[in-house]
Give the backbone structure.
Amino acid sequence: MSEGFFLRTMMPEDADAVARIGYESWVEDRFHPEWFEPAVERRVHDAFRKFADDPQADVVVCQVTDEIAGWGARDSRDHPGDRSQPWNYISDLWTAPLWQGKGIGTAIIDELLSRMRAETIETATIEVVEANHKAHRLYLKRGFAEMWRGDTFSETLGLPIRRILLERPLG
């Protein structure tokens, strides 16, 4: 990673940046016409705000000098926020549009995988919207392999989404 970049666990004072980056990144990479509807935009904005204010997950931020440039989170896919379950699911990966393509997403993924290995987790999972080809390529480069493709309903969007589930062994 470049000089001046560092990764750390999210602190409460990062909440505004985390919410803003998540929402701005989502806006930048919207793939479906329905995602431009004001009601959908408001739900997504509110969901990022709620998450940032009370992240029931392990959240890593990437800081560049005095600003947050991106963040990622992990928890349990089937039991979000339940620490009695293995937190082997990368639930979020968001990079501020200005910082995309500079290695921040890779660094965050690697940090989350390192934390999983430290907990002796054997397999990591991540999902991506099928139309998000940039993210899909990144996950494949980081050693993830496709396990499933299908439609799921997004509570946040209020819409069905075509997703790809990927896994990576950590041994």
